[in-house]
Every structure is written in structure tokens, then in C-alpha cells.
């Protein structure tokens, strides 16, 4: 499953700086708006310590990590939805991504240009969000025209399509993001192809200065906004290469880059409702990303289409059991191996082996 995530925000707020930190790809960074014109794209491995723990017990020739694709685009400004700046290209580009990481400037520095000449994270967020809403309005309005034009006689399908498009418009005209709205399955299918922007989860990334890692006045304001919107917020200082950071999970000091990537990845997993399962054999130990609730049959298809076609059962060992009992044999002796059917819901950390007939 390809997770793609766009890095958006006003111009010159540190999007490309963050992109470079996350991906280790040196993007063009400069202190003027619209330094980025063509998107910077890079795929990074999702660090997962569990892979190392698995291969310590059961070495395989190769390890394959999950990946995430980051796309750093040009800045968005007022009028972007109508094509001002690089608006049209940027908004079209981010339509294909699953999550929007919205970088917001939360640091003071007179040397670094701000397009509005002062620092106000909530205003900045509202400018960008207004463009996302406007863009969706345009998409829905155009689709309504297209459906009406295409169908001289409005059939059931077109009626359903028009209904959901008008429903979307009602909310969008009132400034409501569509991710807050419940849609039936049919409604979802009818708007899926439009790839509307306000349906996508947003993660706010507060770009703060090195001194105020835990709090500053701008960060606090952005936090309040994010919490009101029920959107997650990650704070980081994109620029300082020397900063190291304590990782909450394992209490070791790790490189700042890894730490930011770790925080952002975790948040992406949470907003997209994702989890990881593993497959192990002598050749390869591999992490697979799937949506929580994926069935064993769907998981089998991810790994190999033959596994789905000839699916018999899936053997499941929980990650913790594999570690505690020192591998497959130990887990077996402790009665920690389960065999499940095609409807089994895969859980995070499951180590799966598919039994299938050819
Ligand atoms: N002091 C400070 N400067 C930063 C920080 N992040 C980025 N900058 C500076 O801000 C300027 C703009 O950074 P970019 O990463 O190019 O910003 P951008 O959002 O990609 O800009 P556009 O592509 O033009 O939209 C550069 O001079 C960076 O060095 C930060 O956390 N602190
Ligand atoms: Mg840039």
C-alpha cells in the first residue's frame, strides 16, 4: 500500500527544509517565496525497530521496510484555488495524495521573509484552508454541471451523484471540511474519483525555533486551533541540524531527523488508521502496511495473488510472543501459534504465514 503525503503550506514557511530532513534529499531551499516550483518527491523507508528484533531471532537474507512517499509542493497563497501563484498545479498535485501535512510557521526571525510580514499561525492556516475549501467547491460545481450536461434524462445513478455533490457543496459553502461529514458507502463511491481535498486528513506541522521545542506563543495558538478542529499536530524545528531529541518510546537519544520522521510517521499511521504485519522466511523479512481491520484474505492478496486464490488458512504469531519465546519453535511450544480463517482481522505486529493450495 503506497502511503503518499503532501507537504503544503504558505510559501517560505519551511516546507522544503522539512522535506529534506524527512527524506535526506537536498531540495532547493531559499529565503524567498516560491523557491519550489516543481514538486520534490521522495520515498523513504518507515523505520521499524521490530524488523531488527525479528531478524536477530530469525535471520533472513534481506529486510524490506514499509515506505512512505513525501511530496513537497510550491506554496499556497490567497487565490490559489483560482490559479494564483502555482495554485492550480499544486492543488491538482496534492489531490492524488492521502494525507496533507500542513507546515505552519511558528518561529520569529526577522531575516526570514513571511508573505504577510508578521507571524500569525492561525491566520496562515485559515488562508490555506480557505483555498482547500474553494478548490473543492469548484470541483463539486464542475462535476454537477458535467453530470447535468451528460444526462439529458437523470437516471438513478446520476441522481445519487448529484445528491452527494450538492450535500458536499452545502457543507463547503459553510466552510465545513468534508472529513467531518458522514457519508454512506454509495456516497463515498460517488465522490471518490473527485479526490476532494477537504476529505483528506490534515496533520499540522508547527515549524518552531530550536529554543522553544515544547512551547511558544505561536505553537500554543496553533495547538488550540488543531485541538478545536480535532486535527493532530506535530511540532519540530526543521532547520537546526544539531538538535537531538528524546524519543518517548525507548528513552534513547536519537537523531533529530529520525525523531521528526518517527513522529510524523506515527501520526500518519494514526490518521489513516494503519497497522503493520510481518512475513518472515529465509529470504526476506518484510513489513507490510495495511488498514486496521484488513482481513486475512485481503492481506494474502497483498503478499501474493496466489495466496489469495488458494487461501486455506493463515498462521498467526503475535510479535511479542515471537520475541518472548525466541521465535517460531518457542512460540509453538508455548501454544502461541494460532491458525485463522479468511475473515480474521489482521492486527498490528502480527507475523503471518499463509497456507494455500496451488
Ligand atoms: N530560523 C528558521 N528558519 C527556517 C526554518 N525552516 C526554514 N527556514 C528558512 O526559511 C526559508 C524558507 O525555507 P524553505 O524550506 O525553502 O521554505 P518553503 O516553504 O519550501 O518555501 P517555498 O518553496 O518558497 O514555498 C529558508 O531560508 C530556510 O532556511 C526554521 O525552522 N527556523
Ligand atoms: Mg519549497
Task: Report on this structure.
This is Redox-regulated ATPase YchF. Pfam families: MMR_HSR1, YchF-GTPase_C. Keywords: ATP-binding, Magnesium, Metal-binding, Nucleotide-binding. Residues 3-207 form the OBG-type G domain. InterPro entries: ATPase_YchF/OLA1, Beta-grasp_dom_sf, G_OBG, GTP-bd, P-loop_NTPase, TGS-like, TGS-like_dom_sf, YchF_C. The chain is α/β, with parallel strands linked by helices. The protein has 2 domains: 3-271, Rossmann fold, CATH 3.40.50.300; 293-356, Beta-grasp domain (Ubiquitin-like (UB roll), Roll). The chain is built from 12 helices and 14 strands. It has helices at 15-23, 49-57, 87-95, 121-150, 156-173, 185-192, 217-229, 256-272, 296-303, 305-309, 319-324, 328-333; strands at residues 3-8, 40-45, 62-64, 67-72, 99-106, 202-208, 233-236, 244-246, 253-255, 274-280, 284-291, 311-318, 337-340, 350-356. The strands form 4 sheets. A 6-stranded mixed β-sheet has the order 2-4-1-5-6-7, sandwiched between helices. It has a 3-stranded mixed β-sheet with strand order 3-11-10, sandwiched between helices. A 3-stranded antiparallel β-sheet has the order 13-12-14. Helix 7 (217-229) links the parallel strand 6 (202-208) and strand 7. Helix 4 runs antiparallel to helix 5 (156-173) and helix 5 (156-173) packs across helix 6. The radius of gyration is 23 Å and the shape is globular. The two termini are 25 Å apart. The structure holds guanosine-5'-triphosphate and magnesium ion. Residues 15-16, 35-36, 72 line the site of magnesium ion (MG).
